[in-house]
Amino acid sequence: MSSDTPRPSGTPAASSATARPLLRRPPLAAATAKPSPSRSAPASKPALNTPAARTGTAAATPASTGIRLNKRLAELGLCSRREADDWIAQGWVLVNGQVAAMGSKVSPQDRVEVERAAQRQQDSRVTILLNKPIGYVSGQAEDGHEPAVTLINPRTHWRQDSSGLRFSPPQLRGLAPAGRLDIDSVGLLVLTQDGRVARKIIGEDSVMEKEYLVRVIYQGPGPLRPLSPNERAAPLQEIHENDPVSRNVQAIFPAEQLARLRHGLSLDGQPLQPAKVEWQNPEQLRFVLTEGKKRQIRRMCELVGLKVVGLKRIRIGHVVLGQLPVGQWRYLGPHEHF
Question: Which of 106, 178, 197, 220: disulfide with 110, CB 3.0–4.6 Å?
């Protein structure tokens, strides 16, 4: 199962002694030229907005030094590595005033610039929040089940969406889930065209909080019997914040086991990060995690004798599911940030 970096602005002055690359947007006129990275760099360094500058190729940093340019752009929070590769292929990234070649490496002293065309392309990309129902997979279709992206259409667009955006088919291009929910888990699923959003939520260094409501039953002390490789878990139930309580699991579940859920368990031979775990009601737990191992909450619960019978994600970072109906979606608003 499964998470903020600011957009660059302004035009800072370049300095060879800077600790990291500076991000500069060249004049809009420069963004209209279509570079050809295959041409050789001119002997003298021309002005940035001249045609010659747009067709030059940055000198390669030795392979043994520096980091890949796509990684540097991602570290600066400008885009994902995949997006960076696309920008480089389009000729929208310059290193020390010259068009960067694919696979280039940069050092802390190199000056990195991104053309306005890249920002315009990025600003047109959308992020969608879906209340995923049971029966849909997060990513590619599998075992005859449809992917959640098939729910994104004008008919399922929430009428109370306040973003002001309107649906158009190009918004489906490259729209991918940032994180996953199991087929019988429900709640907040983020689908985005924006690599910056995906990196914040599921990047290698992401520590973004994800919050879940989890309905459980207690089957006694000790871990539950693990499933065999070909055995499927029993399907989960729909879950809501104010479901009626039919059994008081909280009264019989040992306090020391609740403490273990918060910190002290290991999965796949690795200790888990501390989690926030509290009772929402006598048979629902509220989990807040900052990591996302496969089926993490179910496996954590099994280690302390709990069986999960319902699971719903209600928050990622600062963005909450709220009143979004099951099976409907809305756009991430301009005022919202993960």
Answer: 106
Q: How far is CA 278 from CA 173, 184, 213, 287, in A?
A: 40, 23, 10, 7
Q: Of the candidates 107, 122, 137, which is a domain's last residue?
A: 122
Rounded-to-integer distance, Cα 226 and Cα 218, Å: 15
- Is 109 domain-assigned? yes
The answer to whether residue 106 is domain-embedded is yes
Q: Which long-range contacts (CB under 8 A, 24 or more apart) does 134-139 make?
A: 134/183, 134/184, 134/185, 134/186, 134/235, 134/236, 134/238, 135/183, 135/184, 136/183, 137/183, 138/177, 138/179, 138/180, 138/181, 138/182, 138/189, 139/176, 139/177, 139/180
Same domain, 232 and 264: yes
Task: Give the pTM.
Answer: 0.71
Same domain, yes or no: 118 and 129: no
What are the pLDDT digits (tens) for 181-234? 999 999 999 999 998 899 899 888 889 999 999 999 998 888 887 766 566 667
Phi, psi of 85 (to 5 degrees): -60, -40
pLDDT for 106-157, tens place per residue? Answer: 998 999 999 998 888 888 889 999 999 999 999 887 777 899 999 999 999 9
Last residue of a domain, one of 75, 92, 122: 122
Instruction: Quote the domain boundaries for residue 180.
Output: 124-203+324-331
